[in-house]
Amino acid sequence: MRETERTYKVSRFLEITEFIFRYRILRFNMSDEDESLLTENKAHEQIREELKHMSFENLQKLKEKLGTKVYNETLFGKKNKKKAEKIKFRRENKNRPREMSAKKPIPIKYEEMTRVKKVVSRDPRFDSLCGTFNEKAFKNSYAFINKLRENDLKTLQKELKETTDLKAIKKIKYLIQRLENQLREERKKKEKEEKKWLEKKELMESVKRGEKPAFKKKSEKKVLDLVSQYEELKNTGKLKKHIQRLRKKNKHKDRTKLRVEETE
């Protein structure tokens, strides 16, 4: 009994495979109408039913023998693939903008592209387009500023004598000191420039006379500066104050030196 069942299953398996091969050949040679008639055939339906009841092992063997595509078409039927219809974008009115697909990138011409220019900050003091800085010309153009400062200093000194408010006195004193420092620095710069100009003049004259130009050393220049500073302090009556300040400075230096030596 078992042997007869086994032989029946094997024979039926071979019949199914043979039918599938025939079905494949017929489908290849037939039109769509004939193929629809073939699917209506009862024998084809019966085979599909039998395939459903077969064991997984036998189905796997059949799939390997026939191929996945033919096996799936026999068991599940052929899939009707519908072609995606192309959507035609049309304008309802000629004045409206053209409707384009979002999937395709819109071609943009290089000339039509609007690029935002990078804002570059420009300082006219350090820009070569605004010309080079000429200190001499600048001082000649703005020479009136020192005169204004001198006038402001005089008015502030008058206000200091007249005012009694402590806050106002403190503020005026601060402004007077600032103006005095500014004027003093300008005076020093002017004196340095005059000295340089005199040195150049002396060198030019010595060259004209046929002599060898004698350039001053830094140490000599330093001594001359100290002499001129001493004379200036003596004339203004600030020499004693300056000496006292220097002594205090030197004392502080000596103390710091001693502390460092003690720690070592």
Automatic annotation (TrEMBL):
Q: Basic residues bias located where?
A: 238-256
Q: Name one Pfam family in it.
A: RRP36
Identify the InterPro entries for this entry: RRP36
One GO biological-process annotation of the entry reads:
maturation of SSU-rRNA from tricistronic rRNA transcript (SSU-rRNA, 5.8S rRNA, LSU-rRNA)
* Cellular localization per UniProt: Nucleus, Nucleolus
- Where is the region Disordered? 238-264
Keyword field: Coiled coil, Nucleus, Ribonucleoprotein, Ribosome biogenesis, rRNA processing
Q: What is its main location?
A: nucleus
> Cellular component GO terms, alphabetically?
90S preribosome; nucleolus
Coiled-coil intervals in this record?
A: 146-236
Assembly description = Associates with 90S and pre-40S pre-ribosomal particles.
What the protein does? Component of the 90S pre-ribosome involved in the maturation of rRNAs. Required for early cleavages of the pre-RNAs in the 40S ribosomal subunit maturation pathway.
Protein family according to the UniProt entry = Belongs to the RRP36 family.
Q: What is this protein called?
A: rRNA biogenesis protein RRP36
